[in-house]
Design goal:
With about 110 residues, the chain is an all-beta fold. About 0% of the residues lie in helices and about 50% in strands. It contains no helices and eleven strands. Strands 2, 4, 5, 6, 9, 10 and 11 form a seven-stranded mixed beta sheet that branches. The chain starts with a strand and ends with a strand.
Amino acid sequence: DVQLVESGGGLVQPGGSLRLSCTTSGFEFSRYAMHWVRQAPVNECEVISFISSDGSTYYKATVKGRFTISRDNAKNALYLQIDSAKTEDTGVYYCASASNNYWGQGTQVTVS
């Protein structure tokens, strides 16, 4: 079975840091781009970052310079380092393999 399990969310003060992790299994992780998607309390889901299979990265403008996405293909794991957190970063963060429509259950990040 395909599994994506996020962890590392929690409560952080503005200006603080968090590191989200996503462990995966059941599919060939290294072959696919991986995404972090955020569901904010009042907004639609939005892709905030993704990393391609070759390591190329994309960041939404509002998080660029503060978030860092990375992957460890040997561990089938995806990461998101959140620095200089802002209140507007609050939301549920999902990791996803969009091309396969595989999603994790999400982890809550609250900046307050």
